[in-house]
Amino acid sequence: SIGNMRTGLIVGVIWVFIWPRTVHGGFVLKKVICESLDASYAEFELCEMKIVRRGVASFYMFLKLHKMPINNVDVNVSLLKRSNGYQPFLFNQTVDYCYYMRNPQAHPLIYTLHKVMFKKTNMNHSCPFDHDLKVENFTYDQNDMMDLPLPSGDYMIKLILATYKICRVTLKIYFKKN
């Protein structure tokens, strides 16, 4: 709706242009948890984070898809901050991934997170998906997301992938902002 688009645009402008100048510090990836909600549809054969050196980690993921092609994908991305458990913080947005990949800059918050992974994944195109999904040797350097405007603390990015409006998998990415 127009109201949601306007709110998203305002939050996006603040996120991209204003907050990065007021909040500084690096990010450290702590752990990643992958969960298949329907193993008959998709299952993780690999979900692993390796520490390469101080402040640098590599992520590997292989999601075996059992029913292809996939022409309808929704992704919910939420940012949670640890405070007596993990609480919603700043955004919780669902996008039509097929549409998003045709116009990623239309969702600046999600694009900020996604652009650092584009080169290391085979999910960098629009629908249909007629192959398994993978992330190979995605090396996260603590300076990759310096523009992400967050105060210091422990965070989780939670991704929920749905196809044909049914939730299939979740990924929880835990990190610390110094």
Blueprint of the fold:
Blueprint: H1 2-18, E1 27-36, E2 42-53, E3 56-65, E4 73-82, E5 86-96, H2 97-102, H3 108-114, E6 133-141, E7 153-163, E8 166-177
Antiparallel strand pairs: 1-8, 2-3, 3-6, 4-5, 4-7, 7-8
What does this 3D model show about the protein?
The chain has 178 residues and is of the alpha+beta class. The chain is built from 3 helices and 8 strands, in the order αβββββααβββ. It has helices at 2-18, 97-102, 108-114, and strands spanning 27-36, 42-53, 56-65, 73-82, 86-96, 133-141, 153-163, 166-177. The strands form 2 sheets. The protein has a 5-stranded antiparallel sheet. A 3-stranded antiparallel sheet has the order 2-3-6, with no helix packed on it. The radius of gyration is 16 Å and the shape is globular. The termini are far apart.
Give me a quick take on this structure.
With 178 residues, the protein is of the alpha+beta class. It contains three helices and eight strands; from the N terminus they run H-E-E-E-E-E-H-H-E-E-E. A five-stranded antiparallel β-sheet has the order 1-8-7-4-5. A three-stranded antiparallel β-sheet has the order 2-3-6, with no helix packed on it.
What brief labels describe this structure?
178 residues, alpha+beta, 5-stranded antiparallel beta sheet, 3-stranded antiparallel beta sheet, 3 helices, 17% helix, globular
